[in-house]
Amino acid sequence: MPNNLNVNIVSPSGEILSGEAKSVIAPGSLGQMTILPKHASLLSSLSKGKIIVNLENGEGSEFEIDAGFLEVSNDKLTIIIEKLSQ
Amino acid sequence: MPSTKELRARIRSVSNTSKVTGAMQLIAASKMRRAQDQVMQGKKYSETLYKLLMNLSSSVDEEKENIPLLENRVIKNKLMILITPERGLAGALVGNINKKALEVISSSEENYTILSVGKKGFRFLNSRGHDIVEQLIIPDRPELSDTIKISEIAIKGFLEKKWDQVDLLYSEFFNTTSQVPKSQVILPISNPESTNLIGSKDYIYEPSAYDVLKDITPKYVRSQIYQSILESFASEHSARMVAMQNATDNANELIGELTLDLNKARQETITAELLDLIGGISALEGK
Q: Does domain A5-80 have CATH number 2.60.15.10?
């Protein structure tokens, strides 16, 4: 499947998620956004909210975060957070 | 030649020592594995953060001066964050770090203030009359949140111009047998002009490159401090494991030598007794 996003969610205590996804919804600092494959290169800060990753196999994963950063480039999406919300 | 009784007592005491060091070795080994694991996990985070920082600093040019943590000013005072173990029995590790700390302090013209993490460095520098602003203890298996206090003190003092440069001195972890004291400047954040990030100009930044860079700089400082603490722990446990392994080996060798001595001494007494007997018999027969 060429049209996927390679998603990595990284925190200081290790990778929280690593895999292929169809889309990712993230709480950007200028408003919620959905990232699809072939997105233009983007670097955004994230605010408090929920990240939803729609995985390739149809499953979805959700994470609550307080803050973080998101980078997309060449269908590689990296989210970097200090910790998940309690 | 000591008597067999004395030799037995010594063997017992040495074998007790070997049991203690053997147990400490096992404990250190299991802690080391966990700590090394944490270093690996943390590396991914700090490397990703570094990549983002480089990307950003190559696209923010003029306004870069306005970001407080990037500000290069005339250096009058420096802060040293000295990370040492809580406990000894780790071979030359503690001595090496402390030696390096003294070296850095004495070779610098500016005045150093010390923030000490871990008792060993604190005692060493305190006894030499250095100015220690804070002494902190970090629990084993630290989380990022355990180390935030350190970065807050460092950043706050930097912004209030209490110090114009912050150094980190810790034990860099290479592998189980090699740990080297390392001194690193963490504030102001140095940004080597990155030329290898071609195409980063095409990025969309939200809200703006400047804002993201401003947000990311304190996180980067935190991650560097956290990572250095993880490495220090991994170094400490590795050094202790190797030191205890050596101690156990030496104790076992000593037990071997003592056992040999004991056997010799025992044989000697038997021979002496036999000689006595034979002498007695031949004296009787000779009558």
A: yes
